[in-house]
Structure formats: C-alpha cells, structure tokens
Amino acid sequence: MGSQDTAGANGINGNDIYQIRDTPIHANRHLRVICIGAGASGLYLGYKLRKDFTDFTLDIFEKNADIGGTWFENRYPGCACDAPAHNYTYSFEPKWDWSSNYADAGEIFQYFSEFANKYDLRKYISFRHEVVGARWDEDATEWVVDVREGGPEGGPEGRITRRRADFLINASGVLNKWKWPDVAGLDSFKGPKIHSANWDDSVDLKGKRVGLIGNGSSGIQLLPQLQQIADHVTTFMRQSTYVAPQQGMGPRKYTAEEQQAFRDDPESHLQMRKVTERAIAAVFPVFIQGSAAQTKITEYMRQAMNEKLAVGYADNPDLVNVIPDFPFGCRRLTPGVGYLESLTKPNVTVARGGGVSRMTPEGCVTADGKEWPLDVLVCATGFDTSFRPRFPLIGRGGRSMAEEWSEETPKMKRATGDGTENTESNGGGPRTYLSVAAHGYPNYFMFLGPNCPIGNGPILILIELAGEYMAHFLNRWQKQGPGLASFEPRREAVDDFMEHKDRFMEGSVWAECESWYRSRATGRVTALWPGSEPHYMEALAEPRYDDYEVRYHRGANRFAYLGNGFSQTELDPDGDTAFHVRNSDKEGSGIFRPMQSSFNAKDAGVMLKREWGIP
After folding, report:
1. SS3 for 550?
2. What is the pLDDT at residue 8?
3. CB 519 within 8 A of CB 407
4. pLDDT (tens digit per residue) in 303-316
5. Is residue 13 scored above 70 in pLDDT?
6. 440, 395 Cβ separation under 8 angstroms
7. Which secondary structure element, helix H or strand E, spans residue 82, and what is its range?
8. Average pLDDT for residues 252-270, to the nearest whole number?
9. 440-453, pLDDT tens digit by residue?
10. Burial 552-568 (b: 16+ CB within 10 A, else e)
11. Based on CB atoms within 10 Å of each CB, which residue in 115, 257, 398, 486 is the most buried?
12. pLDDT band at residue 12 under the 50/70/90 scheme
C-alpha cells in the first residue's frame, strides 16, 4: 500500500527526539464515525460497531422520523419485497414468523424496527436530522458535516449544527430520492398527483379515472390494487418489461403450524433459507449474452407472458406489445402478482403511444398525440438513480462528488501510475472503487454504491459484506494510530476497475435495453456489479491495501502504535499467551491473534504493574 507523510518529518529525523508511547501494541484510539441514514445499511453499521468495536462514537443521522429507509417511506398499496421473505433478512438474524413468503412493506419495516430494538441501536440515531453538507478538512484530517435538525421538512429555518468525524459512511442507499416524471405541464394537472414513494392515503380512488405512469417494480405492484378500486385505470408504458411467472413460488400465507415449525426446528429453517439462496445464485448465467440459460429463459418468459395476456388481445391490441423484445434480465425482474391478469381486465387500458409527452389540466397527452382524460395521476416513476449525493460532498482539494459524478462531466484523463495522465477514461458518471469507496474522498465509504450487485438477489448480504469491508479500515485506523490519518483509493485503481467493469458489461444483457441500471446519457451500466453475488463476496473478502494511498499525520512515526513492547494478549485477563501451541496445523487455527476483539488494553495493566513493578 502506498503511503504519504502529510509533513515530511517523522519524529526521528526531525528536530524532536522520538518518544516511545507508554501503551501496548494496538491500543485503541477513539474512533468517531458519522453515518448517513438509518435504513438497513445504517442499522447494520451500528450493529457491527457495537458488536466488534470499543472506544467509538457513532452518530447516525436519519432524515425521517423512524428507521427503515425505503421501507419507512414506501407504503403504497401492494408494496412488498420482490425477494423471498426468509432470504430478505440479515444472514445471522432469521425471522421465523413471516406471514407470507413475500413480505409486505409494513412487515419488513417491523423486522428492522425489532432488530434496532433488540440490539439497542436507536441510541446512536438522531431522527429528523438531515445531512446537508460534508467537507474533508485536510489540515485536521477529518470530515466536517453539516446537519439540519428537523429533517427534510425542517425548512431553511431548521437549525444547522456542525459535527466532525474521522470517517463518513454513506448509508443512504440508491432508492432514496424519489422523482416526478419529466413531463411538460405536470403542475397544470388539476387533479391529485400521487407518487408511489410518497403515498397519500387521503386521496379517494373509488369511481375515478386513474392514470398510472411507470411499469417498473412499483407500477407492477400498484396496478392490481388500483384496478380493484378505480373505475378505470390507464397504464402508460414507455417500454415493456418481463413479469415473472410464479412456478410454485407465488405468494401465499404461512399457516400457524408452518411458522411454529420454523421456530421449533431452526436447523430445518436454515436449510430452507440455504436452498432458496442457492437457487437465486444459480440464476447468474442468465445475465450473460448468448448463454444457453439466457436464450432458454427468454423464450420461456415470452411464451408464459403471451399465454397470460392472450385472453385480452381482442379488446386491447396493445397488449401484445407488453411482451419485451429485449433479453430477459435486462431490466429488474419483479414477481408481479396479478399484474398480467390486471392488464386484461375491462377497466384497464394499456397506452403505449411512446409514453406521456405532456400533461393538461384534464389529463395527459401521449407522444402519438392522443389525449387521455384523468381524475387522478399516480406516478410510479422511481428514484434519482444517478448516485450523485443530494448534498454538497466536498473531498480533498475542494473536489465535488456531485460535479465529478455528473453525466455531463467532460471526459477525464486516465492515470498511468507514474504521476502522468495521458489517456482518456470513459467519461462522466459515478466512478467508484469496488462500489464502496471513491478516489479523492478519504475515509469515506458507501453502502450499495455504484456498481454493487443489487440486481442479482437479496441485498442485505451485500450490506453485510460492505460493512465487513469497511470494518477492516476502521479497525486499522483505530489500532495503528496515532500516526495513521486516512485511506483513499488510488486513481489508477479506480480507473482499472471501471475499465474492467465497462468491458464486462458489454457482454451482459444489462447493456441491451434502457433501464435504471444504465445511464441514459452515457449508456454505461452504473448500478450493477460485473459478476455474480458470490463473486462480489470473494472480491471484498480481503482489502487490496496496495490499491489505497495511506497518509500519516504531520511528524508521525508510522510504527508508534508498537508502543511499550507489551501485547494485547498478555494484558487480556482471559488471554492465552500459549494459544499458538498446538497438536496439529488444522485449518483455521493460525498462529496470529486477530487484531479486533472486545478487549483492548491501553496501558501495562494492573497485573503487570503489581507483579513486575512496572510503573
């Protein structure tokens, strides 16, 4: 790993005489962490620090009134997880009493709420506190974070406080900033407008003509609910999407006997979870262009959808265009319970027509010029998936992540590794190191960042993996102080990862259609990992420290943490200084003691002072 002294003097060759610290090796220094967001990622970070770290301060700032992130915000009718419920949990925290095999938003929110309560995580969280700015202070080698009390609705009068931290962790996720459709005259529509991520239960849909824009995951879940309530629903589709047949995996309620069996036989419950997880992992070959699995599943899906929709072709000829002509998997797959059936109902009209081009006070006009009168407009138009931070995030040298990650940013020069930059990279948009870090932003990490495998299966294990990865750096910073100041991925490492990722994506189905996985401006796949979920696990298993630049405090000796010569093992009352003496060299019984443990000594200890007279 590269390193740099922020001053040049190291305390030995400088004017001051180097002094040995009177502390044992790996004595903790206090660690300050600020986390943005108390959804699944922020809660896991709190759990991880509480479980494996000591001597830390954690401040989690959550803009909403409670935990849960997307599961707090999204409460539209039919809102549910599109992953099997028993696999949408932290890997170590199963839930035996899910009411059905696909859990709804309320039940998932309850899972995270119970998790926060069980592990006493709310003490770290400040609710209705929104991060509105963050800046790296190079002189102090710390993050300066501006927080507005009162949350996103606090308004300009909300009090802004300034906090400082050694590490800044962005756990706000990608689906956190919902957006209205980019349609001319949207505000001119005189009827109610509802967004799926900001649902308004006070709007009565009974007997109304409802327009639904969007046929992604939210739109697919909403339509069957709207169809049962509204007088008529017109669903506007700019493009088609695949809807998965159930094949025995359709939603169903668990009986009380089944739930009790899950509780009484945890081993059987575990095996059920493993079987489902293996089945999800086995899907990855489908995402490779030209693979036999891709060809077979695409043909099957088109046939299955055609069989479901055929009953409505006579009354709604546009239904035939609902079946995609692009490869299966290019857009996110959603189970879509009752969706295809709803499209064939007499009170549902599929409007292709190139999508909605403009709104009028009475309704909308599609690109083909046809007018559609409406009473209520429902927008399932998703989120801002540009990955650009919603607040000014200023890194080293005054660089702005929002500007650097803008799709309109001019093409950047590629670093060569020898200090020169003479070849072009692929241009604007988000640029990360393995989805978790970014060049120019020291001591900054992200959960579910750009090019994380969020389309390959349940995401909670991805959160755990990223949290474990970050913990390596937090632990090293804490135990190899006081000299160690910051970690930052090297520019050439980011360039190499982006080059590999972009080339891999050329052979994937994700590059073959328009979706939120891809940048509309550049065409690059920005939301997915170049590989399977197990591939991501192995890639993040051990940090490649040589890809990072390490900086040290002014005048610091990088080996000051070695201290007074005593080890943590001999100072730990429960430690065993003969742990390395063994009868065999079995796997997992190595001779190195882990750096991280719940015990940490900061001086020679009472026992050594008493028995050996150490002052």
Report:
1. strand
2. 40
3. yes
4. 999 999 998 888 88
5. no
6. yes
7. none
8. 96
9. 999 999 999 999 99
10. bbbbbbeebbebeebeb
11. 486
12. very low
- The rounded distance, in Å, linking the Cα atoms of 339 and 185 is 29
pTM: 0.91
Q: Which strands form 393-394's sheet, in the order they lie side by side? A: 160-165, 142-149, 129-137, 393-394
- Rounded CA-CA distance 512/505 in Å is 10
Q: Which amino acid is it at 559? A: F
> 444-446 and 376-379 as β-strands: parallel, antiparallel, unpaired?
unpaired
Return the CATH superfamily for domain 2-67+121-177+384-552: FAD/NAD(P)-binding domain (3.50.50.60)
User: Which two structure tokens, joined as six digits, stand for 526?
Assistant: 């920005």
Task: Annotate 488-511 with DSSP letters as a single string.
Answer: EE-HHHHHHHHHHHHHHHTTBGGG
Does residue 593 have a pLDDT over 80? no
CB-side exposure of 317: number of CA atoms within 13 Å?
1
- Tens of pLDDT, residues 36-95: 999 999 999 999 999 999 999 999 999 999 999 999 999 999 999 988 999 999 999 999
Partnered with residue 131 across adjacent β-strands are 147
The stretch 408-419 carries a mean pLDDT of 49
CATH topology classification for 186-379? FAD/NAD(P)-binding domain (3.50.50)
Q: What is the total residue count of the chain?
A: 615
Find the largest Cα–Cα distance for the chain.
95
Q: Coil, helix or strand for 562?
A: helix
The verdict on whether omega for the bond into residue 573 sits within 30 degrees of 0, i.e. cis, is no
Structure tokens, 270:
């575990």
pLDDT in tens, 517-558: 988 888 899 999 999 999 999 999 999 999 999 999 988 999
| Fold agreement (2-67+121-177+384-552, 186-379) | yes
HEC states along 334-375?
Answer: ECCCCHHHHHCCCCEEEECCCCEEEEECCEEEECCCCEEECC
Domain ranges of the chain: 2-67+121-177+384-552, 186-379
Could you give phi then psi for residue 238, rounded to 5 degrees?
-80, -30
3-state secondary structure string across 200-256: CCCCCCCCCEEEEECCCHHHHHHHHHHHHHCCEEEEECCCCCCECCCCCCCCCECCH
- Beta carbons within 8 Å of 9's beta carbon, 6+ residues apart: 15, 554, 555
Separation in Å, CA 336 to CA 71, 96, 245 = 18, 24, 8
Smallest CA-to-CA distance from 440 within 552, 549, 558, 527 is with 549
Q: Using one digit for the tens of pLDDT, what is the confidence trace for 471-526?
A: 999 999 999 988 999 999 999 999 999 999 999 999 999 998 888 898 888 889 99
Contact call for residues 41 and 173 (beta carbons, < 8 A): yes
Of 227, 243, 235, 240, give the one whose Cα is nearest residue 308: 243
Q: In sequence order, what DSSP letters do the residues of 450-479 get, joined into one string?
A: TT--TTSS-SHHHHHHHHHHHHHHHHHHHH
